[in-house]
């Protein structure tokens, strides 16, 4: 059975080969490249294809669970959501999300994050989900704050992108915190959900 969540205006589902053009269109946007750790500038179609293949392999191996986010109304590709770097021993994972710049500022990253967090805690039985973003990425910080994450600190000069050292802010949410927010911040995964 395929992974599928439909809630509100979005569908979260596994990528199909037919999604490649839309994915490449998003990944090649300068603002996406500027605020993500792994996406290069001038992202080629072959890189986007490799990225999708890597996502499919990781799902099969159960090391990462990344999915596409699509519009319920017209099927447009809105972005990417996932839990990556799953550590089954420590019951933890990283959250990752990208929203197509054409659809930013509409709450899609927050809604998709709330759904994937519920999946992580309720179905993967995680105890901790952490996230990080570049310190200048106000939108990404806002998503994590709206999802109840706690700020843990600043990783100074933690990564190099385009020959520049960048600071990364670290956030996390624990299962106990998620349970307190369940029902009024987080959405139960029952209607239109398949795994």
Short description:
The chain is α+β, with helices and mostly antiparallel strands. It has helices at 20-27, 30-35, 45-61, 108-122, 138-146, 175-181, and strands spanning 4-7, 10-13, 65-71, 77-87, 92-99, 128-134, 150-161, 164-174, 193-194. Strands 7-8-6-5-4-3-2-1-9 form a nine-stranded mixed sheet, with helices on both faces.
What composes the largest sheet?
Answer: 9 strands, mixed
**Strands across the major sheet, in which order?**
7-8-6-5-4-3-2-1-9
Percent helix among the residues?
25-40%
Specify the structural class: alpha+beta
**Based on DSSP secondary structure assignment, what is the total number of beta strands?**
9
**Which of globular, elongated, flat, extended, rod-shaped describes the shape?**
globular
- H/I helix tally: 6
What does this structure look like?
By secondary structure, the chain is α+β, with helices and mostly antiparallel strands. The protein is built from six helices and nine strands; from the N terminus they run ββαααβββαβαββαβ. Helix 4 (108-122) links the parallel strand 5 and strand 6 (128-134).
């Amino acid at each position: 059975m395929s992974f599928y969540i439909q809630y509100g205006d979005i569908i979260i589902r596994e990528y199909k080969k037919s999604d490649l053009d839309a994915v490449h269109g998003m990944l090649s946007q300068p603002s996406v490249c500027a605020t993500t750790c792994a996406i290069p500038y001038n992202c080629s179609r072959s890189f986007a294809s490799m990225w999708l293949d890597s996502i499919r392999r990781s799902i099969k191996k159960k090391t990462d669970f990344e999915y596409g986010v699509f519009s319920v109304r017209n099927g447009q590709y809105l972005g990417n959501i996932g839990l990556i770097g799953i550590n089954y021993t420590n019951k933890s994972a990283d959250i990752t999300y990208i929203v197509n710049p054409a659809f930013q500022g509409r709450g899609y990253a927050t809604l998709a994050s709330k759904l994937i967090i519920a999946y992580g805690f309720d179905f993967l039985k995680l105890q901790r989900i952490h996230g990080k973003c570049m310190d200048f990425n106000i939108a990404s910080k806002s998503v994590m704050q709206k999802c109840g994450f706690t700020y843990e600190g600043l990783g100074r000069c933690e990564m190099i992108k385009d020959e520049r050292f960048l600071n990364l802010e670290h956030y996390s949410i624990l299962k106990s915190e998620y349970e307190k927010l369940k029902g009024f911040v987080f959405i139960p995964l029952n209607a239109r959900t398949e795994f």
